[in-house]
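Write out this protein's structure.
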Amino acid sequence: MESFSASTRIRGRLIVLVPEEIENIAGFARRVHWIALRERRDVLYVTLVGDVSTELSAARLLTTLQACTQDGFMNVRTQALLGADWIVALQPVYQAGDQLICHAGQTCKKRRKIVSLEGSLHEHFRSVVVPVSGFYHPVRVESARSGWHVLLFWLGCLVVLALFSWLEIDIDLSLQGALRSGILLVLMLVEAAAVWAWNGITS
């Protein structure tokens, strides 16, 4: 049988975003297969790989999805993208005419704010973005990550407070008068700025 890409496909591909937190892989693959048949598109499954430790599990997930979706009517390919930002990682992959599939509830960071990934994809690529629901359950993973972020934040704060406390005590013992007060005031402002910046990095 001919695939859509050989002669009958009249549109671009379906680029399907695959986060690590999906469940019911077979059901998700069936949903993608149905959309691809309806839209007469080939399929490209993509996932993000942050480091080499996640490459094997990402490859297994993509291989399973490809096997569950593949048939004689469409080409199904997979690609692991290096990085942690969907928008940045998709830029060299996306082509005009492609359609994107993401999961309802997926989010991303935009100017330090958490926003809908669906909206960000549409805004950046000016493409149709189809959200699917029922397969993305990030609660457990995001809760663990949130715990690590909180722990990292407080460890950083302790380091900042210890460093600035040592400096303030040293200046308090070494200097006197207005100079001492001025330097201590500057140190307090720098300390507050350091804590604020660290909060932005770990949030």
